[in-house]
Amino acid sequence: MARMHTRRRGSSGSDKPATDENPEWSDVDAEDIESRVVELAEQGHDPSVIGLKLRDEGVKGVPVPDVKLATGKKLTEILEEHDAAAEYPEDLRKLMERAVRLREHMAENDQDHQNKRALQNTESKIRRLANYYRGDEIDEEFTYTYERAAELVGDE
């Protein structure tokens, strides 16, 4: 999505190593990993943060470089199995949080045209992403409104 609203190029990032098995130095039991994932989710962490914590802190002191290689399931699949998944996917929720912050900023600073454009772009991304998730990850009837996004951000 790097070139969606600008002419600039996206930033490059590192790729995951091309491997199909868990490294032997990370021999944590899959059940221990799943219980730690659910525990972190119950503490209110997002899936991306859970992955970072497993990589950095590990389970019982042993790092987990890749949850999918270690357990055979994606992190979000583990959360869904244990009914710990969030109502909305993380990327959509983060965009809605950003839109609420921008809308609140615009209420105080109505001459800030740069942020007005940023709000338009963010809401456009939300609608595009909602179309992608509609019926599968989110309700078929979902439509983005500022009120719904504000309610979501207020719940957290």
SSE ordering: HHHHHHH
Helix content: 40-55%
What is the radius of gyration? Answer: 19 Å
Low-confidence stretches at least 5 residues in length (pLDDT < 50)? none
Pairing-aware structural class of the strands and helices? mainly alpha
Overall pLDDT level: 89
User: Main sheet, how many strands, which sense, barrel?
Assistant: none
N- to C-terminal separation?
27 Å
Q: Report the total helices.
A: 7
Say how many strands there are. Answer: 0
Beta content comes to under 5%
What is the global morphology?
A: elongated
Question: How would you characterize the overall build of this protein?
Answer:
The longest helix has 21 residues, at 113-133. Helix 1 crosses helix 2, helix 5 runs antiparallel to helix 6 (113-133) and helix 5 packs across helix 7. Helix content is 54%, strand content 0%. The radius of gyration is 19 Å and the shape is elongated. With 156 residues, the chain is mostly helical. The model has no long low-confidence stretch (mean pLDDT 89).
In short, what is this structure?
Belongs to the universal ribosomal protein uS15 family. 54% of the residues lie in helices and 0% in strands.
List keywords for this structure.
156 residues; mainly alpha; 54% helix; Small ribosomal subunit protein uS15
